[in-house]
């Protein structure tokens, strides 16, 4: 459905963290996204449609003054289960894999993409955790980026840790 009378002519910038697969949709947009997209006082009418056609193009994300951060998801349980999401990731690169270094067996252990941008692992490594992420872009192909010691020995659910790097 096309509803130009409800949407701003100039468009909006919205951060998309996941590609949806349900209800024949490409993106699942939050209520806040609908409010930004709608003309003044038209958000409720636009949201009432539930599924709308959206024209979009990908642009490079910018987070001035921020490094990429790792947020430990609230449902993580030290030391047995770790779920994280990478936030403030600038640039035009996709993260297609995340791994953690297992010092005791000297190998990288893959994290599972749980949902959206959330990665998890059962029985994460002990001690300060080294992470590496596989980035992919049309111009540069694939590239591993190491984040050494980014997660401390006693990590805590809900906390955010600075990687000191940016992928842009």
Question: What's the layout of helices and strands?
Answer:
Layout: H1 31-37, H2 43-48, E1 69-72, E2 81-87, E3 94-102, E4 107-110, E5 112-115, E6 118-122, E7 129-137, E8 141-151, E9 160-162
Antiparallel strand pairs: 1-2, 1-9, 2-6, 3-4, 3-7, 5-6, 7-8
Unreliable segments of 5+ consecutive residues: none
Arithmetic mean of pLDDT: 88
Estimated helix fraction: under 10%
Individual helix count: 2
Report the principal-axis shape: elongated
**What is the structural class?**
mainly beta
Number of domains: 2
CATH architectural grouping of the largest domain = Sandwich
Spatial strand sequence of the major β-sheet:
5-6-2-1-9
* Number of beta strands: 9
CATH class of the largest domain: Mainly Beta
Q: Tell me about the biggest sheet?
A: 5 strands, antiparallel
Strand content: 25-35%
Return the string of H and E elements. Answer: HHEEEEEEEEE
Termini separation = 35 Å
CATH fold-level name of the largest domain: Immunoglobulin-like
Briefly summarize what is shown.
This protein is mainly β. It has helices at 31-37, 43-48, and strands at residues 69-72, 81-87, 94-102, 107-110, 112-115, 118-122, 129-137, 141-151, 160-162. It has 2 domains: 1-57, no CATH class; 69-162, Sandwich (Immunoglobulin-like), CATH 2.60.40.
Fold and architecture overview:
Helix content is 8%, strand content 33%. With 168 residues, the protein is mainly β. It folds into two domains: 1-57, no CATH class; 69-162, Sandwich (Immunoglobulin-like). The strands form two sheets. It has a five-stranded antiparallel sheet, with no helix packed on it. A hairpin with a 3-residue loop joins strand 7 (129-137) and strand 8 (141-151). It is elongated, with a radius of gyration of 19 Å. It starts with 30 loop residues before the first helix and ends in a 6-residue tail after the last strand. The mean pLDDT is 88.
